[in-house]
Amino acid sequence: MATFKFVNFTNSERPALPNQPTHPYQYKALGAPDEIRLVEILPGMDSETLRCRILHRRLKDVVFGYTALSYTWGSTKWIHQVSCEPPSSGFLTITGNCFSAMLRLRHRVHATTIWIDAICINQTDIPERNSQVGMMGDIYSKADETIVYLGDNGNESEIAMQYVRSFSNSAAPRDPSDKEKRALSLLLDRAWFNRMWVLQEVYLSRFVTVVCGDDSASWNALWGAADYIRTHRSKFDWPYLPPVLTLRKEKSNFRLWELLSATRPCASTDPRDKLFALAAIVSDAERPIIRPDYNMSAEEVYTNLVTHFLDTTGLDFLLAVQYTQFGLDLPSWVPDWSVRFITEQFTNTSMLFDRAGGARPRAQASIICLGSLQDTKVLDSERPVLRVRGVRLADIKRVTKPRHLCGPGSREMLDNLVTLNPRTKRGGQGITSSPAEPTSEPRRNREHRRKSPVKQKGMSIFTFIIRIEHFG
Fold first, then answer.
1. Cβ atoms 287, 260 nearer than 8 A
2. Which residue of 210, 249, 269, 368 is surrounded by the most CB atoms within 10 Å?
3. All residues at 6 or more sequence positions from 310 whose CB lies less than 8 Å from its CB, including other chains
4. C-alpha dihedral sign at 307, 309, 314, 319
5. d(CA 276, CA 290)
6. 453 within domain boundaries
7. How many angstroms separate the CA atoms of 57 and 37, rounded?
8. In the structure, what pLDDT confidence band is assigned to residue 405 with cuts at 50, 70 and 90?
9. Residue 417's pLDDT is what?
10. How far apart are CA 384 and CA 307, in angstroms?
Protein backbone atom coordinates (compact mmCIF):
# COMPACT_ATOMS: atom_id res chain seq x y z
CA MET A 1 0.00 0.00 0.00
CA ALA A 2 1.29 3.42 -0.94
CA THR A 3 1.94 6.00 1.76
CA PHE A 4 1.09 9.65 1.33
CA LYS A 5 1.99 12.91 2.93
CA PHE A 6 -1.14 15.08 3.06
CA VAL A 7 -0.59 18.77 2.42
CA ASN A 8 -3.01 21.17 4.04
CA PHE A 9 -3.53 24.53 2.29
CA THR A 10 -6.26 26.82 1.11
CA ASN A 11 -6.92 27.82 -2.49
CA SER A 12 -5.15 31.13 -1.97
CA GLU A 13 -2.04 29.31 -0.70
CA ARG A 14 -1.66 26.90 -3.61
CA PRO A 15 1.92 26.89 -4.94
CA ALA A 16 2.68 28.94 -7.99
CA LEU A 17 3.84 27.24 -11.15
CA PRO A 18 6.77 29.22 -12.60
CA ASN A 19 8.76 28.29 -15.69
CA GLN A 20 6.00 26.23 -17.25
CA PRO A 21 6.70 24.64 -20.66
CA THR A 22 5.40 26.81 -23.48
CA HIS A 23 3.82 23.98 -25.51
CA PRO A 24 1.15 21.42 -24.58
CA TYR A 25 2.05 17.79 -24.00
CA GLN A 26 1.80 15.66 -27.15
CA TYR A 27 0.34 12.22 -26.48
CA LYS A 28 2.10 9.26 -28.05
CA ALA A 29 -0.19 6.58 -29.43
CA LEU A 30 -0.74 3.44 -27.38
CA GLY A 31 0.53 0.27 -29.03
CA ALA A 32 -0.61 -3.09 -27.60
CA PRO A 33 -4.31 -3.68 -26.81
CA ASP A 34 -3.58 -3.80 -23.06
CA GLU A 35 -1.23 -0.80 -23.01
CA ILE A 36 -2.04 2.04 -20.63
CA ARG A 37 -0.41 5.22 -19.41
CA LEU A 38 0.60 5.88 -15.82
CA VAL A 39 1.49 9.19 -14.19
CA GLU A 40 4.63 9.35 -12.11
CA ILE A 41 4.28 12.32 -9.74
CA LEU A 42 7.81 13.50 -9.06
CA PRO A 43 8.76 14.30 -5.44
CA GLY A 44 8.71 17.87 -4.24
CA MET A 45 8.21 20.20 -1.33
CA ASP A 46 4.91 21.94 -0.67
CA SER A 47 5.89 25.16 -2.42
CA GLU A 48 7.52 23.52 -5.46
CA THR A 49 6.03 23.19 -8.92
CA LEU A 50 4.00 20.05 -9.53
CA ARG A 51 5.94 17.93 -12.01
CA CYS A 52 5.19 14.52 -13.46
CA ARG A 53 6.32 12.01 -16.04
CA ILE A 54 4.05 9.98 -18.37
CA LEU A 55 4.85 6.26 -18.56
CA HIS A 56 3.59 3.64 -21.03
CA ARG A 57 3.02 0.19 -19.54
CA ARG A 58 1.17 -2.99 -20.45
CA LEU A 59 -1.25 -4.29 -17.84
CA LYS A 60 0.17 -7.80 -18.04
CA ASP A 61 3.68 -6.43 -17.41
CA VAL A 62 2.86 -4.11 -14.50
CA VAL A 63 4.89 -5.71 -11.74
CA PHE A 64 5.47 -2.54 -9.73
CA GLY A 65 2.60 -1.03 -7.82
CA TYR A 66 0.41 1.84 -8.90
CA THR A 67 -2.46 3.64 -7.27
CA ALA A 68 -5.75 4.37 -9.06
CA LEU A 69 -7.46 7.67 -8.30
CA SER A 70 -11.23 8.01 -7.96
CA TYR A 71 -12.35 11.64 -7.86
CA THR A 72 -14.61 14.20 -9.50
CA TRP A 73 -13.28 16.34 -12.31
CA GLY A 74 -14.91 19.41 -10.85
CA SER A 75 -15.46 22.73 -12.56
CA THR A 76 -13.49 23.48 -15.71
CA LYS A 77 -13.52 27.18 -14.82
CA TRP A 78 -10.55 26.66 -12.49
CA ILE A 79 -7.75 24.97 -14.40
CA HIS A 80 -4.07 24.39 -13.69
CA GLN A 81 -1.07 23.35 -15.70
CA VAL A 82 1.18 20.44 -14.77
CA SER A 83 4.72 20.24 -16.11
CA CYS A 84 5.63 16.98 -17.87
CA GLU A 85 9.30 16.08 -17.74
CA PRO A 86 11.38 14.49 -20.53
CA PRO A 87 11.52 12.29 -22.48
CA SER A 88 8.15 13.78 -23.49
CA SER A 89 7.98 17.33 -22.22
CA GLY A 90 5.14 19.83 -22.30
CA PHE A 91 2.32 20.95 -20.07
CA LEU A 92 -0.99 19.28 -19.23
CA THR A 93 -4.11 21.26 -18.43
CA ILE A 94 -6.20 19.75 -15.62
CA THR A 95 -9.07 20.84 -13.39
CA GLY A 96 -8.53 22.30 -9.94
CA ASN A 97 -9.85 19.17 -8.22
CA CYS A 98 -7.42 16.95 -10.13
CA PHE A 99 -4.59 19.35 -9.32
CA SER A 100 -5.49 19.31 -5.63
CA ALA A 101 -5.57 15.50 -5.56
CA MET A 102 -2.15 15.23 -7.23
CA LEU A 103 -0.63 17.68 -4.75
CA ARG A 104 -1.96 15.69 -1.81
CA LEU A 105 -0.62 12.43 -3.24
CA ARG A 106 2.84 13.86 -3.95
CA HIS A 107 5.59 12.61 -1.68
CA ARG A 108 8.54 14.73 -0.56
CA VAL A 109 11.19 12.05 -1.14
CA HIS A 110 10.12 9.47 -3.72
CA ALA A 111 7.93 9.41 -6.82
CA THR A 112 4.30 8.29 -6.65
CA THR A 113 2.84 6.30 -9.56
CA ILE A 114 -0.88 6.72 -10.17
CA TRP A 115 -3.51 6.11 -12.82
CA ILE A 116 -5.77 9.11 -13.32
CA ASP A 117 -8.27 9.18 -16.17
CA ALA A 118 -7.98 12.86 -17.08
CA ILE A 119 -4.27 12.44 -17.87
CA CYS A 120 -3.80 8.77 -18.73
CA ILE A 121 -6.49 8.77 -21.44
CA ASN A 122 -6.13 11.07 -24.43
CA GLN A 123 -9.62 12.53 -24.18
CA THR A 124 -9.50 13.93 -27.71
CA ASP A 125 -8.72 10.56 -29.34
CA ILE A 126 -12.13 8.85 -29.65
CA PRO A 127 -10.87 5.36 -30.65
CA GLU A 128 -8.40 5.38 -27.75
CA ARG A 129 -11.07 6.64 -25.39
CA ASN A 130 -13.41 3.82 -26.43
CA SER A 131 -10.69 1.22 -25.82
CA GLN A 132 -9.40 2.63 -22.52
CA VAL A 133 -12.86 3.09 -21.02
CA GLY A 134 -13.53 -0.56 -21.81
CA MET A 135 -10.38 -1.47 -19.85
CA MET A 136 -11.13 0.59 -16.74
CA GLY A 137 -12.48 -2.40 -14.87
CA ASP A 138 -9.12 -4.16 -15.26
CA ILE A 139 -7.20 -0.97 -14.45
CA TYR A 140 -8.91 -0.55 -11.07
CA SER A 141 -8.89 -4.26 -10.20
CA LYS A 142 -5.12 -4.52 -10.85
CA ALA A 143 -4.18 -1.41 -8.85
CA ASP A 144 -2.53 -1.95 -5.49
CA GLU A 145 -4.88 0.62 -3.99
CA THR A 146 -7.60 3.03 -5.01
CA ILE A 147 -7.68 6.47 -3.43
CA VAL A 148 -11.12 8.06 -3.20
CA TYR A 149 -10.48 11.80 -3.10
CA LEU A 150 -13.47 13.73 -1.78
CA GLY A 151 -11.83 17.15 -1.95
CA ASP A 152 -10.27 19.63 0.46
CA ASN A 153 -11.21 20.14 4.09
CA GLY A 154 -14.38 22.08 4.75
CA ASN A 155 -17.89 22.00 6.21
CA GLU A 156 -16.70 20.21 9.36
CA SER A 157 -15.29 17.32 7.33
CA GLU A 158 -12.77 16.59 10.09
CA ILE A 159 -15.63 15.80 12.48
CA ALA A 160 -17.34 13.56 9.92
CA MET A 161 -14.16 11.66 9.08
CA GLN A 162 -13.40 11.13 12.75
CA TYR A 163 -16.84 9.58 13.22
CA VAL A 164 -16.33 7.39 10.13
CA ARG A 165 -13.00 6.14 11.49
CA SER A 166 -14.78 5.02 14.66
CA PHE A 167 -16.20 2.16 12.55
CA SER A 168 -12.68 0.90 11.81
CA ASN A 169 -12.25 -0.79 15.17
CA SER A 170 -14.23 -3.58 16.77
CA ALA A 171 -16.02 -1.30 19.23
CA ALA A 172 -19.79 -1.27 19.10
CA PRO A 173 -21.20 1.47 16.82
CA ARG A 174 -22.46 4.53 18.63
CA ASP A 175 -25.08 7.12 17.79
CA PRO A 176 -23.53 10.31 16.41
CA SER A 177 -24.00 13.60 18.18
CA ASP A 178 -26.03 16.33 16.50
CA LYS A 179 -22.80 17.99 15.39
CA GLU A 180 -21.55 14.72 13.92
CA LYS A 181 -24.86 14.16 12.14
CA ARG A 182 -24.62 17.56 10.50
CA ALA A 183 -21.01 17.03 9.48
CA LEU A 184 -21.74 13.53 8.15
CA SER A 185 -24.67 14.83 6.12
CA LEU A 186 -22.45 17.47 4.51
CA LEU A 187 -19.74 14.91 3.80
CA LEU A 188 -22.14 12.51 2.05
CA ASP A 189 -23.50 15.42 0.04
CA ARG A 190 -20.17 15.91 -1.72
CA ALA A 191 -20.17 15.46 -5.48
CA TRP A 192 -18.10 12.26 -5.48
CA PHE A 193 -20.88 10.17 -3.91
CA ASN A 194 -23.25 10.82 -6.79
CA ARG A 195 -20.68 10.44 -9.55
CA MET A 196 -21.54 7.68 -12.01
CA TRP A 197 -18.09 6.15 -12.39
CA VAL A 198 -17.47 5.55 -8.69
CA LEU A 199 -19.50 2.33 -8.63
CA GLN A 200 -17.05 0.33 -10.71
CA GLU A 201 -14.04 2.20 -9.34
CA VAL A 202 -14.86 1.12 -5.79
CA TYR A 203 -16.48 -2.26 -6.39
CA LEU A 204 -13.61 -3.62 -8.50
CA SER A 205 -10.75 -2.31 -6.35
CA ARG A 206 -8.82 -4.52 -3.99
CA PHE A 207 -8.20 -1.91 -1.31
CA VAL A 208 -9.85 1.52 -1.03
CA THR A 209 -8.82 4.50 1.11
CA VAL A 210 -11.09 7.54 1.44
CA VAL A 211 -9.27 10.89 1.62
CA CYS A 212 -10.86 14.22 2.51
CA GLY A 213 -8.38 17.04 3.01
CA ASP A 214 -5.70 15.74 5.33
CA ASP A 215 -8.00 13.09 6.85
CA SER A 216 -8.34 9.51 5.67
CA ALA A 217 -10.36 6.38 6.49
CA SER A 218 -10.78 2.92 5.02
CA TRP A 219 -13.68 2.20 2.71
CA ASN A 220 -14.85 -0.51 5.10
CA ALA A 221 -15.17 2.13 7.83
CA LEU A 222 -17.24 4.39 5.55
CA TRP A 223 -19.42 1.46 4.52
CA GLY A 224 -19.92 0.58 8.19
CA ALA A 225 -21.05 4.13 8.95
CA ALA A 226 -23.43 4.06 5.97
CA ASP A 227 -24.80 0.68 7.02
CA TYR A 228 -25.47 2.06 10.50
CA ILE A 229 -27.37 4.99 8.97
CA ARG A 230 -29.31 2.61 6.73
CA THR A 231 -30.42 0.40 9.60
CA HIS A 232 -31.20 3.35 11.93
CA ARG A 233 -33.01 5.70 9.56
CA SER A 234 -35.25 7.10 12.27
CA LYS A 235 -32.22 8.61 14.04
CA PHE A 236 -31.10 10.65 11.04
CA ASP A 237 -32.63 13.65 9.30
CA TRP A 238 -31.91 12.64 5.71
CA PRO A 239 -33.63 9.67 4.01
CA TYR A 240 -31.32 9.33 1.02
CA LEU A 241 -28.03 7.46 0.71
CA PRO A 242 -26.12 7.45 -2.60
CA PRO A 243 -26.11 4.22 -4.64
CA VAL A 244 -22.41 3.58 -4.01
CA LEU A 245 -23.30 3.17 -0.32
CA THR A 246 -26.43 1.08 -0.81
CA LEU A 247 -25.64 -1.45 -3.56
CA ARG A 248 -23.88 -4.41 -2.01
CA LYS A 249 -20.31 -4.84 -3.24
CA GLU A 250 -20.42 -8.61 -3.03
CA LYS A 251 -23.17 -8.65 -5.65
CA SER A 252 -20.79 -8.24 -8.57
CA ASN A 253 -23.20 -9.19 -11.35
CA PHE A 254 -25.97 -6.61 -11.29
CA ARG A 255 -28.80 -6.55 -13.79
CA LEU A 256 -28.55 -3.56 -16.11
CA TRP A 257 -32.13 -2.45 -15.45
CA GLU A 258 -31.49 -2.61 -11.70
CA LEU A 259 -28.32 -0.53 -11.99
CA LEU A 260 -29.78 2.11 -14.29
CA SER A 261 -32.80 2.53 -12.01
CA ALA A 262 -30.68 2.75 -8.86
CA THR A 263 -28.23 5.26 -10.36
CA ARG A 264 -30.77 7.80 -11.63
CA PRO A 265 -29.53 10.33 -9.01
CA CYS A 266 -25.93 9.95 -10.24
CA ALA A 267 -24.21 12.51 -12.46
CA SER A 268 -21.85 12.18 -15.38
CA THR A 269 -20.26 14.94 -17.41
CA ASP A 270 -21.03 12.97 -20.57
CA PRO A 271 -24.60 11.59 -20.65
CA ARG A 272 -23.38 8.50 -22.52
CA ASP A 273 -21.42 7.53 -19.42
CA LYS A 274 -24.67 6.84 -17.57
CA LEU A 275 -24.53 3.56 -19.49
CA PHE A 276 -20.83 3.11 -20.28
CA ALA A 277 -19.81 3.49 -16.61
CA LEU A 278 -21.70 0.29 -15.77
CA ALA A 279 -19.98 -1.94 -18.32
CA ALA A 280 -17.61 -3.61 -15.85
CA ILE A 281 -20.17 -4.49 -13.16
CA VAL A 282 -23.27 -5.65 -15.05
CA SER A 283 -24.06 -9.34 -15.38
CA ASP A 284 -21.93 -11.39 -17.74
CA ALA A 285 -24.91 -11.93 -20.02
CA GLU A 286 -25.53 -8.19 -20.44
CA ARG A 287 -21.91 -7.03 -20.61
CA PRO A 288 -21.60 -7.39 -24.42
CA ILE A 289 -24.51 -4.96 -24.79
CA ILE A 290 -22.46 -2.10 -23.32
CA ARG A 291 -19.63 -1.37 -25.70
CA PRO A 292 -18.35 2.16 -25.13
CA ASP A 293 -18.58 4.03 -28.42
CA TYR A 294 -18.16 7.80 -28.19
CA ASN A 295 -18.81 8.15 -31.90
CA MET A 296 -22.49 7.63 -31.09
CA SER A 297 -24.63 10.42 -29.70
CA ALA A 298 -26.35 10.07 -26.33
CA GLU A 299 -29.67 9.90 -28.16
CA GLU A 300 -28.42 6.95 -30.21
CA VAL A 301 -27.04 5.16 -27.16
CA TYR A 302 -30.28 5.51 -25.18
CA THR A 303 -32.56 4.60 -28.07
CA ASN A 304 -30.55 1.49 -28.98
CA LEU A 305 -30.75 0.39 -25.35
CA VAL A 306 -34.52 0.09 -25.66
CA THR A 307 -34.19 -2.92 -27.99
CA HIS A 308 -32.42 -4.79 -25.20
CA PHE A 309 -35.08 -3.94 -22.65
CA LEU A 310 -37.85 -5.04 -25.01
CA ASP A 311 -36.29 -8.50 -24.98
CA THR A 312 -35.49 -8.67 -21.26
CA THR A 313 -38.00 -6.56 -19.29
CA GLY A 314 -40.87 -6.17 -21.75
CA LEU A 315 -42.43 -2.75 -21.47
CA ASP A 316 -41.17 -2.10 -17.94
CA PHE A 317 -38.63 0.36 -19.37
CA LEU A 318 -41.54 2.78 -19.91
CA LEU A 319 -41.67 3.21 -16.13
CA ALA A 320 -38.35 5.07 -16.41
CA VAL A 321 -39.63 7.64 -18.91
CA GLN A 322 -39.84 11.09 -17.35
CA TYR A 323 -40.93 14.23 -19.13
CA THR A 324 -38.52 17.14 -18.90
CA GLN A 325 -37.98 20.19 -21.02
CA PHE A 326 -34.24 20.19 -20.24
CA GLY A 327 -33.36 16.65 -21.33
CA LEU A 328 -32.09 15.14 -24.54
CA ASP A 329 -34.00 15.16 -27.83
CA LEU A 330 -35.41 11.65 -27.54
CA PRO A 331 -38.59 9.90 -28.69
CA SER A 332 -41.24 10.15 -26.00
CA TRP A 333 -40.94 6.44 -25.17
CA VAL A 334 -37.16 6.38 -24.63
CA PRO A 335 -35.97 6.95 -21.03
CA ASP A 336 -33.58 9.86 -20.66
CA TRP A 337 -31.10 8.38 -18.19
CA SER A 338 -29.28 11.71 -17.93
CA VAL A 339 -32.26 13.18 -16.02
CA ARG A 340 -31.42 12.87 -12.35
CA PHE A 341 -33.88 12.18 -9.57
CA ILE A 342 -34.07 9.95 -6.51
CA THR A 343 -35.57 6.54 -7.27
CA GLU A 344 -34.73 4.62 -4.13
CA GLN A 345 -38.33 3.59 -3.52
CA PHE A 346 -39.05 2.78 -7.16
CA THR A 347 -36.19 0.45 -8.10
CA ASN A 348 -38.37 -2.56 -7.34
CA THR A 349 -41.24 -2.18 -9.79
CA SER A 350 -43.15 -5.12 -8.33
CA MET A 351 -43.70 -2.94 -5.25
CA LEU A 352 -45.91 -0.65 -7.32
CA PHE A 353 -47.37 -2.78 -10.05
CA ASP A 354 -48.72 -6.29 -10.38
CA ARG A 355 -50.02 -8.20 -13.37
CA ALA A 356 -52.89 -10.59 -13.75
CA GLY A 357 -51.84 -13.93 -12.38
CA GLY A 358 -48.40 -12.51 -11.58
CA ALA A 359 -47.33 -12.98 -15.21
CA ARG A 360 -45.31 -10.53 -17.29
CA PRO A 361 -47.41 -8.72 -19.92
CA ARG A 362 -46.83 -10.24 -23.32
CA ALA A 363 -47.57 -7.12 -25.30
CA GLN A 364 -46.19 -7.24 -28.83
CA ALA A 365 -43.87 -4.31 -29.55
CA SER A 366 -41.97 -3.32 -32.65
CA ILE A 367 -39.70 -0.44 -33.58
CA ILE A 368 -40.61 1.28 -36.84
CA CYS A 369 -38.07 3.27 -38.82
CA LEU A 370 -38.80 4.76 -42.24
CA GLY A 371 -41.87 2.58 -42.50
CA SER A 372 -39.93 -0.71 -42.23
CA LEU A 373 -39.88 -3.13 -39.30
CA GLN A 374 -36.57 -3.25 -37.44
CA ASP A 375 -36.24 -6.28 -35.18
CA THR A 376 -32.93 -5.45 -33.49
CA LYS A 377 -32.17 -1.76 -34.09
CA VAL A 378 -34.21 1.36 -33.61
CA LEU A 379 -31.98 3.92 -35.26
CA ASP A 380 -32.26 5.48 -38.67
CA SER A 381 -32.17 8.89 -40.26
CA GLU A 382 -35.78 9.45 -39.29
CA ARG A 383 -37.21 9.59 -35.78
CA PRO A 384 -38.02 6.03 -34.66
CA VAL A 385 -41.51 5.00 -33.61
CA LEU A 386 -42.52 2.41 -31.03
CA ARG A 387 -45.56 0.33 -32.02
CA VAL A 388 -47.19 -1.69 -29.26
CA ARG A 389 -50.07 -4.13 -29.56
CA GLY A 390 -52.14 -4.54 -26.44
CA VAL A 391 -55.68 -4.59 -25.05
CA ARG A 392 -57.91 -1.55 -24.75
CA LEU A 393 -59.31 -1.35 -21.24
CA ALA A 394 -60.85 2.11 -20.95
CA ASP A 395 -60.71 5.71 -22.09
CA ILE A 396 -58.93 8.41 -20.13
CA LYS A 397 -61.51 10.98 -19.07
CA ARG A 398 -59.29 13.51 -17.37
CA VAL A 399 -55.60 14.05 -16.64
CA THR A 400 -54.59 15.38 -13.24
CA LYS A 401 -51.97 18.00 -12.54
CA PRO A 402 -48.37 16.69 -12.31
CA ARG A 403 -47.46 15.37 -8.88
CA HIS A 404 -44.00 14.84 -7.41
CA LEU A 405 -43.63 11.14 -6.64
CA CYS A 406 -40.39 11.19 -4.66
CA GLY A 407 -41.22 13.48 -1.76
CA PRO A 408 -42.96 12.99 1.58
CA GLY A 409 -46.35 11.36 1.30
CA SER A 410 -45.58 9.82 -2.09
CA ARG A 411 -46.59 6.35 -0.94
CA GLU A 412 -49.97 7.54 0.30
CA MET A 413 -50.54 9.47 -2.93
CA LEU A 414 -49.78 6.42 -5.04
CA ASP A 415 -52.10 4.29 -2.93
CA ASN A 416 -54.89 6.77 -3.60
CA LEU A 417 -54.07 7.34 -7.25
CA VAL A 418 -53.51 3.78 -8.42
CA THR A 419 -55.30 0.88 -6.77
CA LEU A 420 -54.69 -2.56 -8.16
CA ASN A 421 -57.60 -4.92 -8.75
CA PRO A 422 -56.76 -8.19 -6.98
CA ARG A 423 -59.63 -10.03 -8.71
CA THR A 424 -57.53 -11.41 -11.54
CA LYS A 425 -57.10 -15.08 -12.25
CA ARG A 426 -56.22 -17.42 -15.03
CA GLY A 427 -59.19 -18.69 -16.99
CA GLY A 428 -58.75 -21.38 -19.61
CA GLN A 429 -56.20 -20.33 -22.19
CA GLY A 430 -56.54 -16.66 -21.53
CA ILE A 431 -56.66 -14.27 -18.61
CA THR A 432 -59.87 -13.21 -16.88
CA SER A 433 -60.01 -9.87 -15.15
CA SER A 434 -62.65 -7.53 -13.75
CA PRO A 435 -62.59 -4.10 -15.34
CA ALA A 436 -62.94 -1.27 -12.89
CA GLU A 437 -64.18 2.28 -12.89
CA PRO A 438 -63.74 5.35 -10.68
CA THR A 439 -65.63 4.89 -7.44
CA SER A 440 -65.65 5.97 -3.83
CA GLU A 441 -66.97 2.58 -2.67
CA PRO A 442 -64.84 1.00 0.08
CA ARG A 443 -62.09 -1.17 -1.37
CA ARG A 444 -63.15 -4.19 0.71
CA ASN A 445 -66.60 -4.15 -0.95
CA ARG A 446 -65.12 -3.62 -4.41
CA GLU A 447 -62.94 -6.69 -4.04
CA HIS A 448 -66.07 -8.88 -3.83
CA ARG A 449 -67.92 -7.18 -6.66
CA ARG A 450 -67.69 -8.73 -10.12
CA LYS A 451 -68.53 -7.32 -13.51
CA SER A 452 -68.51 -8.81 -16.98
CA PRO A 453 -65.12 -10.39 -17.59
CA VAL A 454 -62.72 -9.25 -20.29
CA LYS A 455 -60.96 -12.09 -22.07
CA GLN A 456 -58.06 -11.98 -24.48
CA LYS A 457 -56.32 -15.17 -25.51
CA GLY A 458 -52.60 -15.18 -24.87
CA MET A 459 -52.44 -11.76 -23.21
CA SER A 460 -51.83 -10.73 -19.61
CA ILE A 461 -54.14 -7.93 -18.50
CA PHE A 462 -53.58 -5.64 -15.54
CA THR A 463 -56.29 -3.21 -14.45
CA PHE A 464 -55.94 0.13 -12.70
CA ILE A 465 -58.69 1.76 -10.65
CA ILE A 466 -57.97 5.50 -10.97
CA ARG A 467 -59.60 7.67 -8.32
CA ILE A 468 -59.24 11.15 -9.75
CA GLU A 469 -61.73 12.79 -7.47
CA HIS A 470 -58.99 13.38 -4.86
CA PHE A 471 -56.55 14.97 -7.32
CA GLY A 472 -58.49 17.49 -9.35
1. no
2. 210
3. 317, 365, 367
4. negative
5. 6
6. yes
7. 6
8. low
9. 55
10. 12
Same domain, residue pair 276 and 324: yes
Residue 200 has pLDDT above 80, yes or no: yes
Please check the confidence at residue 1 and state whether its pLDDT lies above 60.
no
Q: Are residues 142 and 164 in the same domain?
A: no
Same domain, 339 and 452: no
Quick one: 196 and 218 in the same domain?
A: yes
Examine the pLDDT at 409 and tell me if it is beyond 70.
no
Query: What angle, rounded to 10 degrees, do the helices at 178-188 and 219-231 form?
Result: 110
**Extended beta strands in 257-405, E state:** 364-369, 372-374, 385-389
Comparison of pLDDT for 411 and 188, the residue scoring more: 188
Is the per-residue pLDDT at 170 higher than 60?
yes
Q: Is residue 19 domain-shared with residue 145, that is, in the same domain?
A: yes
Nearest CA to 74 out of 27, 31, 118, 33 is that of 118
Q: Where are the alpha helices (DSSP H) in 88-156?
A: 96-105, 117-120, 126-134, 136-142
**71-80 contacts, C-beta under 8 A, 24 or more apart:** 71/97, 71/98, 71/101, 71/116, 71/148, 71/149, 71/192, 72/97, 72/151, 72/191, 72/192, 72/195, 73/97, 73/98, 73/118, 73/269, 74/98, 74/191, 80/17, 80/50
Residue 3 maps to a domain: no
Looking at the predicted structure, is the pLDDT value of residue 114 above 90? yes
User: What is the pTM (predicted TM-score) of this model?
Assistant: 0.72
Beta carbons within 8 Å of 471's beta carbon, 6+ residues apart: 400, 401, 403, 416, 417
- 221 has pLDDT over 90: yes
CA 352 to CA 404: how far, in whole Å? 16
Last residue of a domain, one of 113, 132, 149: 149
Q: Mean pLDDT of all residues in the chain?
A: 76
Write the Ramachandran bin of 51: left for phi over 0, alpha for psi from -120 to 50, otherwise beta. Answer: beta
| Residue 454 clears pLDDT 80, i.e. is over it | no
Residue 404 confidence (pLDDT): 60
Q: Where are the alpha helices (DSSP H) in 204-360?
A: 219-231, 256-262, 273-276, 298-312
Rounded to 10°, the helix 178-188/157-165 angle is: 100
Number of folded domains that form the chain? 4
**Which of residues 420 and 471 earns the better pLDDT score?**
420
Residue 447 lies in a domain: yes
pLDDT for the residue numbered 188: 93
| Domain span including residue 448 | 410-470
